[in-house]
Design a protein that fits this description.
About 30% of the residues lie in helices and about 30% in strands. The chain is globular. The strands form four sheets. The protein has a five-stranded parallel sheet with strand order 2-1-3-4-5, with helices on both faces. It has seven helices and 15 strands. The termini are far apart. The protein has two domains: about 1-115, Rossmann fold; about 135-240, LytTr DNA-binding domain (OB fold (Dihydrolipoamide Acetyltransferase, E2P)). Helix 2 (about 35-45) packs across helix 3. Keywords: DNA-binding, Phosphoprotein.
Amino acid sequence: MRALLIDDERLARNELRRLLENFPKVEVIGEAANADEGVKLIEELQPDLLFLDIQMPGKNGFELLQSIDGKAPEVIFTTAYDEYALKAFEFNALDYLLKPVDLNRLTEAINRVEENHQPLPDTPLGENNKMLGENDQVFVKDGEKCWFVKLGKVRLFESMGNYVRLYFDDQKPLVLKSLNSLEDRLDPNTFFRANRKHIINLNWIDKIEPWFSGGLLVTLQGGDKIEISRRQAIRFKDLMSL
């Protein structure tokens, strides 16, 4: 696992790097002292894992994650403050470590990362390369709930950090997979990448409106409103034209 350390405190980065020497599978490939540096390194180095502080000068850790364009790495927050724990898990953090980081807690966090790197055959995004179309049925598991759903019923896929939320009927389960890898599996004649956060089912479009900066705003059956970015709007018009 290729890891990036993002923390404005140099001593905290040094201590975490020292602790990570206990884990041969974790390679520290870079460090950043603030969110702007962190975003640049994420784009350049494409790490698998972030050790991310929350309180930093300028943008905080949450704002850094919101500014990532494309696939987001897995995240372990490292912070001196425990009041951000709930919000951290809203960003799908794998763990939340309080400073000073304890080796035993760090071991638990690394184990959790390794577990998430195991194949997940019970998601719609298994390890095979079969293209998935609207008539394919997939098994979805979120916590204790399970569904066997035809993909044609899924109107929207939404990136949620390291997860993707599926919208069908009145259900919104999460699966542990990136939107980019999901896009590679879905039939592009039915499922369209509207922007960096959303894939829409073209069969569920109810209304299309012009939007800002040359983009489009689509309303799906059920009321979801999704912006198609300017770049994707050009592809959308080509795809949907005679």
